[in-house]
Design brief:
The complex is a heterodimer of chains A (about 110) and B (about 950). Chain A is mostly helical. Chain A is about 65% helix and about 0% strand. Chain A has one domain: Orthogonal Bundle (Helix Hairpins). In chain A, helix 1 runs antiparallel to helix 2 and helix 2 runs antiparallel to helix 3. The longest helix of chain A has about 30 residues. Chain B has about 950 residues and is mostly helical. Chain B starts with a helix and ends with a helix. Classes of the chains: A mainly alpha (about 110), B mainly alpha (about 950). The interface between A and B is large, with 89 and 117 residues.
Chain lengths: ~110, ~950
């Protein structure tokens, strides 16, 4: 399990990094989304990888081994904040495109 | 105000005699040894009287000096701020506190000097003063921190008591140098003296206050204050002595050749401060007595002289000594007062200046350390004395005597009002009283001040006018006669010459300073920016990525990477299969994002779903729900944005330059390295046994304290509720920013035309007479639209359900909020923006505000019951029909989160969706314009 997840994280990081280094704003926004998947999964993975033990109590206290709730709580807010930053970046992207007439990240030039 | 402070200070006098100390302490940051300590001893008391007394007199004077056009409230508020900061310096009993007040005086003096900020000279002078004293203040802070480190305490009393420890420490020299840098810059000592004449662009009351009793005295105050702890060494003597003697001489010499009245006074101030510094450098108790005495005397006569110069400026309209002459017949009172004050400055017997100068001469003769400085000191002292006689004489003779002035800007000067002269009168009377009967007037006060500095070392000294016919008296006589002779020799040259001393006129500290400033802050900065800076995003991001990677690698490198035997825990085939697809999708996204945006977006959504499945698989149902909902919203959001991006390039570039290829290869390499690194780190972290830190605590207490079974939700709304509050605030801010950015959004010209698909659909309508324009657009995807509209209540119910069960089962405010906003979103998608807004009015801003307020109120509610912010209370409520529901107060908090998430998400999406309505309006406006043309 771990090996698959870590390879997946690695691949998504690679793709994300590659994309944020590209000159088009759209590529950067997609790259950021990919990176945030990778980072979210990574943080999630820090708590250990367990199946079928969601951190939901059945009785009044902890019974048996449950998944670590802390990284989950962190990632949950991270997902929502990630959405917010994506929205913000998208709008900045659109505004920059409207002002400069190009979708290059520096707002000028047809350099590729 | 100043008078009230003065009264308080005077009343406190009985408590500080005989070396007693008044202390007041307030804990500030006791962990760091920082306390708000105020202490008042005799020396500080003397300074308080000076600051408050002269502050009061200057305030009275300024009342009449400032013209009606000047913004007077600003002046007095800066003035009092400065006075407060200055009192802070003399009163603080903690060296860090002292340094803070020190900086405050720098800043408030900057504001005062630049008071007439329309004049370039005022701005430049203020900037220079701030730069020099600011750098000095920084050095002082370093020095004080070093001292505090040596002593182990920042308390002033402890530092003063451990002089031997400091002097014997290996860090003594650096600490000394830094402290001296602070003091010398503040007191305008050579080579930092040049800021003071430039600060003369300030209004005269400011000069009178800053350059007599306060600002520049802060430096010598500091020296005297720390002399028990730092003085007595060869370094102290040498650095201070050299600076002091040079300043004494240079200041006096330059003062002779000034044409500006205030310039003359400024250089004379520099010279007198040099005298005080020289005295302090000697380190003998008697010299310290003389220094303190001279601080007092200089303050009195210099303040009165500045004010007199201000009156002259006020009445005649000029301060240029080449134009002023024969003013005695117009201003007889002022002239008399100025004459007495400048006689005190020159050191004429029967005035206070004479006494301290005499003490200085006496100390100059004594040999304290065997060095060149010591041998030349008596001669230098006499010479400087002669210079000071010469410039004092010049001040009086040029301005008040001689022929009638011919070229004054104002016609007939006349005596100023009674109260404008009052401060000068009072100060001059003090000069006289101290000069004639020192032992009775100033004696006890001086004794109090001296005892508090020197303690048991206080020497025997006598304050009398006549010590018999001895060497100091001879030196005084030589200075008086020599100075007068010098003036009469130079008289005709001075009446016409340019500003500044001969030969050295071109060598201006100011110019050097400005050159350095330009060099450092402009040329160097610019070349550094050109060399290593870039305005392009790509290199910046590249550096961020590379630095991030190296920062991750560094700890591994330093602590060594321990190869462990990785236990292969087996691979689930389905899971592997899912992620195989995921990896393909990720690669596809990366490849297609440039030319096939929609395809890339769909693939991105696919990855999102796979991530969501992973969360389900790995026991994180809450995350899965949230991820799924966010995925929907994000996709819609980017789809809305796609409309405004430029059309994609139809074909790939054939000709790729070598540079571009190289760049791509480099980026690919960076990306692959980062990915591989991430893989290893992730694998290592995941296979490591998780240290049991706080997870168990949360799991065990979620139900008993948070009243919920869904631990993730309990953490969010209860244990870490404050973090969540911050996060939803961020979300709200982002939504508002998006809204604000889009209000002024103007699409690029090539996005203005209607999308191709709509054009085709409209053309289809036009070709058929039985159809109205826009029918096809409206009927497009009719069946899904109807389903979406019918789903509206269902989704709302679902959202409420998710919200309610959130505390015990997967769900909660975040996911419920997203669900509800999707419900709204579907209505927009189904019927179009206009249709949706005709039927439902969503006020996202109100939702957001209500949500935030509700969350905060829930937190505050806990206060009312005496618990910390956001403490929750839980119980179960039985509602009819629904049954038992958890009703922890956290539910209300979650409700706030829910409302804010709804508001923000809807606000963002609607703002984007509205652009298509706005563009119609823009289009019609442009069409009208085109018609008019």
């Amino acid at each position: 399990m771990e090996i698959i997840l870590s390879i997946a994280i690695g691949v998504m990081t690679s793709c994300g990094v590659w994309l944020i280094l590209r000159p088009r704003t759209y590529q950067v926004i997609i790259g950021l989304s990919l990176l945030s998947y990778a980072v979210n999964l990574f943080i999630f993975g820090v708590g250990g990888v367990k199946t079928n033990v969601p951190p939901i109590l059945s009785g009044n206290g902890a019974d048996g081994v449950l998944a670590d709730p802390v990284p989950q709580a962190l990632v949950l807010t991270a997902i929502v904040i990630g959405f917010a930053t994506t929205a913000l970046f998208l709008v900045v992207l659109l505004a920059s495109r409207g002002l400069t007439g190009t979708d290059h990240v520096d707002g000028r030039g047809e350099k590729r | 105000m100043a008078l009230a402070c003065l009264t308080i200070t005077v009343l406190a006098y009985p408590q500080v005699t005989d070396g007693n100390v008044l202390r007041y302490q307030l804990e500030w940051i006791p962990q760091l040894g920082l306390n708000f300590t105020l202490r008042l001893d005799g020396f500080a008391w003397m300074f308080c009287v000076l600051i408050n007394g002269i502050g009061f007199l200057v305030t009275v004077y300024a009342r009449y000096y400032m013209s009606e056009d000047d913004p007077v409230p600003r002046f007095f508020s800066f003035f009092l701020a400065f006075m407060g900061a200055m009192l802070g310096i003399v009163l603080s009993g903690n060296v860090i506190l002292l340094s803070i007040f020190w900086e405050l005086t720098s800043i408030s003096s900057f504001l005062l000097i630049s008071y007439w900020h329309n004049a370039a000279a005022a701005r430049d002078g203020a900037r220079m003063a701030l730069t020099i004293t600011g750098i000095g203040g920084f050095c002082l802070l370093i020095g004080l921190l070093l001292i505090g480190n040596i002593v182990g305490s920042y308390d002033l009393d402890k530092i003063l008591a451990s002089g031997d420890l400091i002097r014997g420490h290996s860090l003594y020299v650096p600490a000394l140098v830094f402290v001296l840098l602070g003091a010398l810059t503040k007191s305008a000592q050579f080579p930092f003296h040049f800021w003071l004449p430039n600060a003369m662009a300030a209004p005269t009351p400011v000069s009178a206050f800053l350059h007599s009793a306060t600002m520049v005295k802060a430096g010598v105050f500091l020296l005297a204050r720390f002399s028990p702890a730092l003085s007595g060494t060869y370094e102290w003597f040498f650095i201070l002595g050299a600076a002091g003697i040079l300043t004494l001489l240079i200041g006096a010499f330059f003062a002779i050749f000034q044409q500006d009245l205030k310039g003359l006074l400024a250089y004379s101030t520099i010279s007198h401060l040099g005298l005080i510094t020289t005295l302090l450098s000697l380190g003998s108790p008697l010299a310290t007595v003389a220094a303190i005495f001279h601080m007092l005397n200089h303050a009195t006569f210099k303040a009165s002289l500045f004010m007199a110069a201000g009156i002259i400026d006020h009445e005649t309209g000029t301060r240029d000594m080449r134009r002023l002459s024969g003013l005695f017949r117009y201003l007889p009172y002022t002239a008399t007062l100025a004459m007495v004050a400048s006689a005190a400055m020159a050191g004429v017997p029967l005035l206070n200046g004479f006494l301290s100068k005499e003490m200085f001469f006496a100390e100059a003769i004594e040999t304290h350390a065997d060095s060149v400085l010591d041998i030349i000191l008596p001669y230098v002292a006499t010479l400087a004395g002669a210079f000071s006689v010469a410039y004092s004489l010049r001040f009086i003779h040029t301005v008040f005597f001689g022929p009638q002035p011919t070229s004054l800007p104002k016609d007939t000067p006349h005596e100023p009002s009674r109260w404008m002269r009052f401060p000068i009168e009072l100060l001059v009377v003090i000069c006289l009283i101290v000069g004639i009967a020192p032992a009775f007037s100033v004696g006890p006060l001086l004794h109090t001040a001296v005892v508090s500095v020197l303690g048991t070392d206080t020497p025997e000294y006598s304050l009398s006018i006549w010590h018999g016919f001895n060497l100091p008296l001879v030196m005084s006589l030589i200075a008086l006669i020599g100075g007068s002779a010098l003036y009469f020799v130079l008289r005709h040259y001075l009446a016409t010459c340019e500003d500044g001393p001969p030969l050295l006129r071109r060598l201006k500290g100011q110019r050097i300073f400005e050159r350095i400033l330009v060099e450092v802050s402009w040329r160097w900065a610019r070349s550094a920016e050109q060399r290593i800076g870039t305005r392009n995003l790509q290199p910046q991001l590249r550096w961020v990525v590379v630095t991030g990677f190296l920062a991750g690698l560094l700890p591994l490198w330093l602590s060594g990477f321990e190869p462990r035997t990785f236990v292969f825990s087996g691979v689930d085939k389905v899971f592997a299969g899912i992620w195989l697809i995921g990896i393909c999708l990720a690669l596809g996204t990366a490849y297609l994002a440039k030319y096939h945006r929609l395809a890339a977006l769909i693939m991105l959504g696919g990855i999102g779903l796979i991530v969501c499945m992973t969360f389900v698989w790995l026991s994180a149902p809450d995350l899965a729900i949230t991820q799924l909902l966010v995925e929907i919203v994000t996709t819609v959001l980017i789809l809305l944005g796609l409309r405004w991006l430029p059309k994609r390039a139809e074909k790939m570039d054939e000709a790729v330059t070598f540079r571009a290829r190289f760049r791509r290869f480099r980026d690919l390499l960076i990306a692959i390295i980062c990915g591989v690194g991430m893989t290893f780190v992730a694998y290592a972290v995941m296979t490591m046994p998780v240290p049991d830190a706080i997870a168990t605590y949360f799991l065990e207490n979620a139900y008993s304290e948070g009243g919920g079974r869904n631990v993730v939700n309990v953490i969010l709304v209860d244990f870490r509720g404050f973090d969540t509050l911050g996060e939803i605030a961020v979300l709200g801010i982002v939504a508002l920013t998006v809204y604000a950015l889009l209000r002024r959004f103007r699409p690029a010209p090539d996005s203005m035309v209607m999308p191709e698909q709509q054009q085709i659909q409209n053309r289809f309508d036009e070709e058929r007479p039985e159809r109205n324009a826009g029918d096809t657009v409206r009927e497009y995807l009719l069946v899904p639209s109807v389903i979406m509209q019918w789903m509206f209540p269902v989704i709302i119910t679902f959202a409420v359900y998710i919200l309610m069960r959130g505390h015990d089962l997967p769900g909660g405010g975040f996911s419920a909020g997203l669900t509800l906003s999707i419900a709204f979103l579907l209505q927009y998608l189904a019927g179009g923006t206009r249709w949706a807004e005709d039927r439902i009015r969503i006020l996202p801003l109100r939702w957001m505000a209500a949500g935030l307020i509700l969350s905060i109120l829930t937190g505050i509610g806990a206060w009312l019951l005496g618990y910390p912010f956001l403490t929750s209370h839980s119980q179960y409520l039985t509602l009819p029909l629904i049954g038992k529901i958890p009703a922890a107060t956290a539910l209300f908090f979650d409700l706030g989160v829910f409302m804010l998430v709804v508001g923000s998400t809807v606000l963002i999406l609607v703002a984007l969706a509205h652009q298509s309505i706005r563009i119609n309006r823009l289009r019609t406006i442009e069409a009208e314009k085109a018609k008019e043309n």
